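Side project, low priority. Logging it here so it doesn't get lost.
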Amino acid sequence: MRPRQPDNTKSTSKPASDESQKLQKVIAASGRGSRRQIEELIAAGRVTVNGEVAHLGQRVTAAEEIVVDGTAIETGGAQVPQVLVLNKAAGLVCSRRDPEGRSTIFEQLPRLQGGRWISVGRLDIQTTGLLLVTNDGALAHRMMHPSTGLDREYAVRVNKKLEDHEIAQLKAGVEIEGETMRFSDIRFYNGSESNFWYHVALLEGRNREVRRLFDSAGCTVSRLKRVRYGPVILPSWLTVGHWASMDTDDLKALYKMLGLARAQGSLQKVKRSKVAKTSCLIPYPKLEKQSRRAKEG
């Protein structure tokens, strides 16, 4: 237990109030890592608040100057988390800035009044389809972390139909450049001649993993589109190159599935035409079981 500080000891901590939040929560929301990782940074003395070394359990407000490893954190005040569902077009990169001057997904997103957009994972420049973007770093980290167990589903067009033994091998695992890669599921959809469509799922989504796995089976991928990320699906009505803001009910359900508490604050207004027309979520039994176990624990 941390001893109470004497009255004559200067402290940067603030009294708990509706406007203050735990320091690690504020930093995690900026996308710097999970709360556990941020706690380690604080314990190591790598975080300062208003020029003084921070301590675990400290609470801060939007007016504080927070610096991690010499870099100021943009808190932007408390904001209700938002998630944008983007149907990424080919030719766009997922980096915030591209050294080669190529267009990025961030150029088409609405400006935030505070904070910044964080992409939940990435898609390579030629891959299209579902990409999630949020202003909540803790949500992005939870969805991307392997321990959460979210799989990704892709629609893939290749130039040949796979044999049963090839499908079995791709599910069992293939060693590629010293790494073992595999699909958690692979199903034939339709096709003929030199255009065959498959739906595949995998857990980690390492760099060009789908393309590399099909290449190991002698297939050339001519189209690759992500259609699902965990419980979030790409709506059929969302056209390529456009985005929609996940509605409030879906946000509540997603946070509940992930076992995360939603921050309270001001919600940036989004035009009604930009809010998702239908639900973007599907049942995800694995997460629902985890959520129930967490409550029981």
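Brief comment: The two ends are 23 Å apart (CA to CA).
Revisit when time allows.
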